[in-house]
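Fold it.
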Amino acid sequence: MHGSAFHGVSSGQSDEKTFGRIYDRQVILRILPYVIPYKRMAIVATIAMLVYTASQVSIPFIIKLGIDSFIEAEDISGLTVLFGVFLAVAGANWIANYTQQMYMEKVGQGVLYDLRRTMFAHLQKLSLSYYDKTEVGRIMSRVQGDVWQLQEFMNVVIMTLADLLSLAGIIIALLIMNLKLGLISMAVLPVLIIIMALWQPFAVKAFLRVRRAISIVNGALNENITGVRVVQAMNRQKRNLRQFDEKNSEHLISNLWASKLSSGLIPVVDILTAVAIGLAIIFGSRMVSLSELEVGVLVAFIMYIQRFFDPIRNLTMQYTQLQRSMASGARIFELLDVKPDLVDTPNARDLPKLQGAVELKDLSFSYAAAGRNVQTLDRESGEGRNGYRANGYPTKDEFPDVLKNLNLKISAGETVAIVGPTGAGKTTLVSLISRFYDVPRDRGAILVDGIDIRDVTRGSLAGQMSMVLQEPFLFSGTVKSNIKYNSADATDEQMVQAAKAVGAHDFIMRMEDGYDTYLAERGVNVSLGQRQLISFARAIVADPRILILDEATASIDSYTEMLIQRALQELLKDRTAIVIAHRLSTIRGADKIVVLNLGEIMEVGTHEELMERDGLYAHLYHMNYASIEAPIPAAGNGSANGDGD
């Protein structure tokens, strides 16, 4: 796989743009459709926020009113009424705050749910050529981290609006109560603005450093967990731990530095708050002694000043959060804007029931052509996976033709073996027949029963075709759910028949819960050969007209393969089978053998016919396929392409 090859690019030189603009109109317009279904809850949350802010601002004024109007006048009845008003405002404050938090959480979680669902559906539609060029970790970052950041956006917007209104209300109240003392109390504000302006760039760099550091740590952790067998086999535990310690130390240092910056701001705000309160007390006391100011006003001033700096501190943090949300939103919608390279044509029709004939007509293919409409997520770095450039337009020189002018007819019901060295184009060929990639119209065609597969829906083609890969992939769930993965309507009897046909029934019944036995992720609690047999059963239960085996028996022992060969003789009757195989037992039983090398068909015929020709196939046979993976001299032009197979 590619993890080790480009891990440094993906993690060490992260191109993730962490901070965006404070306001990105395109992101706002794109997220609105996700908020609209929850507009009533958003309106309720906004109203609750307004009530909460108003109650917060009014409390010091109520206290001022009580001191100046009722306590000094010794009006107990009036003070009792005001106390009731105070309790009512405090109650409204609590209810409004609870309502705001609850409804904003509902809106945020709803938007998060819808976004993830949309992204999952979109990712299911993207072509394999997209996944060939994009790291799985980066896609997961979009679906998990970026969606979470964007979900926080709604909360931040409401809180920012609340803080702005609270700040405005406090300033207005201070200036209305006493203009002179209000201006004196806010004399520290320019100092705070300067400090914030100096602090912000350092904070952005610190948060960016933290994100990059955690990306590197997660990448190293994922790589070592995924490759734990290799790690232990090579006894690399201690060396890997030292390397991980280096990455983890950078994460620790960056987090500590970010914490210092965040923590350092709080004492500064507290000091400025104390200075402002001190100024209010000094000048306010003189004004009270000169009867220029009421005692209640001075008390209210002190309370307002205490509340004045909290919104400013919150706004600073929310500013950074808004930047993160805008950047995350831009990345999410960038992913959603990626168009699948493989799409059904507007007039595509469903494929009728197949007989199973397959024909290749002047077929040529290169991965450069397949990926020409695919964008990557590597815009900032200008470089993508496997050398693809950021715009998704590699040149033909970078990716030469993997298949070159192939012409081949496979009759319905035939079993065809495809052989050749690594890089010959075997896997590429069966991927094209399965329509994982589309062949450009000017580069030949693939026909099934005389119908161009580009003119039918991909779903109707896949419904009559099954593929078994060399590396079996089982999903978390029961054996039954895995066998019925693409045939949920299949009966248990059909499932058992398919399992018996491939020799899987006996070992399944020996398992603790039989067909209801739970398989762990990737089926790691069963052997590799058993996983392959289950994947065979999964392919057979769908009753395909065309069956593709991509070195599917490579992971099975000779005895199990013999059982499968016997079963396939019966199962493949009236079905077309295209088999990539290295084992002679599989190849010799084929109706036709196609020898590929360097993307060209070198020979076609039965085992006996090809042996008589004494060509490439005979050479491979005499070597008993011991060196099938070694470079083989060929009469064709060009050079071997390691990515072609």
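Residues 1-16, 372-397, 625-644 have pLDDT under 50 and may be disordered.
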